[in-house]
Design brief:
The chain is α/β, with parallel strands linked by helices. The protein has 13 helices and eleven strands. The strands form two sheets. The protein has an eight-stranded parallel β-sheet with strand order 1-9-8-6-5-4-3-2. Strands 7-11-10 form a three-stranded antiparallel β-sheet, with no helix packed on it. Helix 3 packs parallel to helix 5 (120-127) and helix 4 (85-102) runs parallel beside helix 12. It is globular, with a radius of gyration of 19 Å. The relative contact order is 0.16. Bound molecules: flavin mononucleotide. Flavin mononucleotide binds next to strand 7 and strand 9.
């Protein structure tokens, strides 16, 4: 597909003025950032991975009240693991010195699921509003759920981190593929393998995915300014998805320790780590990552790792420290500015002109 045609196809599928997607970012934003991005002509996204169905309904009502433009709702679609007492015990043993340091009773920490995948209940909540775009991370939900989303006419997007994943997503019904380079902040969308050595940078991934699939390709990972947008388009992308650059926007709900870290040179040192949830995600290297190492075999399956970390995070944050917080951030934080999402969108859109 020629670049211009792919961009037109993407704009038709998204219903937006601009082929720019404000990346869904669970835990650091709600409807406000999505509304600001959508009203500026981009596609705003509501991350739903950490919302209960009641909270999802509330955020959807806020979205509807805040914009009459298209928006995206985003879900994880992992298979929840069966709790495993031996794995949990191994993980808590590794964290024991930290529990002791903060006076936390490890036996009193509740095991929590943390993040729920897309389900029939999520589809029920969405169906009334029939959002124009639904995006998925970690593959796709069961075929009958994909078919349900398609029945209300939604455009389906999903992240691919390899050429094989892009082909799989196209074969399983997505309308456009988000090619997520390894530079990206937050969780890797990886789903056909759990080997992080398979992960490609945006510059290598995007042109190969463009050649491999017929659907439009959206570039994600490391895009922070207009020049990055222009580069992604030059590689054949029909549009871009930008996350990290939005983190200091006033409409985001980034925690104080996370915001503070984003404003320092700490952003120069990020790593892929599985410590916070059990799946690889990119964040700023902090004390936990430095002392345990970014990838640990002692971590329970996603998303169960998060429960034991939660009280450490609370304790450290109450002392003003992000030592145990997931400080998600991509490799290019140079676009992070305390500027409204509308202004950021306008700056990125300049890259569409060249
Ligand atoms: C703080 C943060 C949270 C994220 N959470 C999600 C999420 O909930 N769902 C998702 O599909 N992608 C998530 N991502 C990944 C983004 O969709 C996107 O791939 C990434 O932000 C693009 O790279 P960049 O951060 O370099 O712009 C997250 C990224 C960040 C930075």
């Amino acid at each position: 597909m020629a670049a211009l045609t792919a961009r037109q196809a993407l704009l038709r599928a998204l219903g937006t003025e601009l082929p720019i997607i404000q990346a869904p970012m669970a835990g650091v934003q709600g409807a406000a950032l999505a509304i600001a991005a959508s009203n500026a002509g981009a596609l705003g996204s509501l991350p739903c991975a950490m919302l209960t169905v009641a909270a999802l309904r509330k955020e959807l009502a806020a979205l509807r009240a805040g914009t009459d433009r298209p928006y995206n709702v985003n879900f994880f679609c992992h298979t929840p693991p069966a709790p495993n007492a031996a794995h949990e015990a191994r993980w808590r043993k590794l964290l024991a010195p930290y529990f002791e340091e903060f006076g936390i009773d490890a036996d009193a920490i509740p095991a929590g699921p943390g993040r729920a995948p897309f389900s029939a209940e999520s589809a029920d909540a969405l169906e009334e509003l029939a959002p124009r775009v639904v995006s998925f991370h970690f593959g796709l939900p069961r075929p009958e759920l994909v078919a349900r989303v398609k029945r209300w006419g939604a455009t389906i997007l999903a992240s691919a981190t390899t050429v094989a994943e892009a082909r799989w997503l196209e074969a399983n019904g997505v309308d456009a593929v988000i090619a997520q380079g390894v530079e990206a902040g937050g969780h890797r969308g990886i789903f056909l393998s759990d080997d992080v050595s398979t992960q490609l940078g945006t510059f290598a991934l995007v042109p190969q995915v463009v050649r491999a699939v017929k659907v439009p390709v959206i570039a994600a990972g490391g895009i922070a300014h207009a020049d990055g947008v222009a580069a992604a388009l030059a590689l054949g992308a029909a549009g871009v998805q930008v996350g990290t650059a939005d983190l200091l926007c006033p409409e985001a709900t980034v925690s104080a320790v996370h915001r503070a870290a984003l404003k320092t040179d700490a952003v120069q040192e990020t790593a892929l780590t599985n410590l916070f949830t059990g799946r690889p995600a990119r964040g700023i290297v902090n004390r936990l990552i430095r002392e345990v190492g970014p990838i640990s075999g002692a971590v329970p399956a996603f998303p169960l790792a998060a429960a034991a970390i939660a009280p450490l995070r609370v304790a450290a944050e109450s002392r003003g420290k992000g030592d145990f917080s997931p400080l998600w951030c991509g490799q290019n934080a140079s676009g992070c500015k305390e500027t409204p999402a509308a202004a950021l969108t306008r700056e990125l859109a300049r890259g569409l002109e060249s």
